[in-house]
Amino acid sequence: MGRKRKGLPIHGWLNIDKDKDMGATTVVAAVRRLTGAAKAGHAGTLDPMATGVLPVALGEATKTVPYMQDAEKEYLFTVKWGQATDTDDAEGNVIAESDLRPAAEQIKEILPQFTGDITQVPPQFSAVKIAGERAYDIARRGDAAEIKPRCVSVKELALLSCSGETAEFRLLCGKGTYVRALARDMGEALDTYGHVTILRRSRVGGFSEKNAISLAKLEEMLHNEPPERLVLPVAAALDDIPALSLTEDEALKMSRGQVVRFLTVQDRERLGTAGVNLGQYAGHVLALSGGRPLAIAEMEGAVLKPVRVFNL
Hints:
about 300 residues, alpha+beta, Pseudouridine synthase, Archaeosine Trna-guanine Transglycosylase, Chain: A, domain 4, 3 domains, nine-stranded mixed beta sheet, 8 helices
């Protein structure tokens, strides 16, 4: 019996516009099936009811997923006032009701409470782990999970429109922010209840809905183009870290997992041109060899240490 085919060595990113009622893992599985890629993963899950940007990494790009997960995210969402649900969205059961419907000015007054570094408790139906078990599994048994509050970062929260029972918002936030929890907590701050009815992620880092494609569009495009020509570069998730071109000898060391030391005046000048000033910058660097991504490395003093080496 012949060996089972493991898939194609495709490396890069696809900016998928997720359809409603699809889970993130379902999208990733569909991308693997359509492209034939050997390896795939997503950068930041989306609830099944949500639509929008879901960056999918293929091959060696999966090594950059943590950097995309940390990227700033933009959401557009609608809150319905007067009802609380057990999931904090429209898919759950109504568990409390109120006749109070806040006016636009009342909503605007409470927005500063939910801007900056804030504390929120994730929804009962969430992927948060409690003693090794997902909160949604506990909730589905009919039990209440004891979820600890967590600090999240909200850069901007703006009211776009307000009409009777609903209000539309735009949110810029960091990693781990639950829009459903935000809707629930805003309802409480307004002495009523609130849950999300529409949720769309419009941006993750440099991946925008403007150039996102649906799975149906991807399938159509693959009839005319090989997947290698459709993917975005592996380094697309690393726009926020400095890029440093290595010499041939330095690249050889880095590819072998060895550190690279910068000791000469010429080294210092080269690093400065890349925005990495010795003694001042400490953090991750994208190491390049011949213009191609070689590794994600960490700069400590005058030493560059490989963190993740790409096999491209």
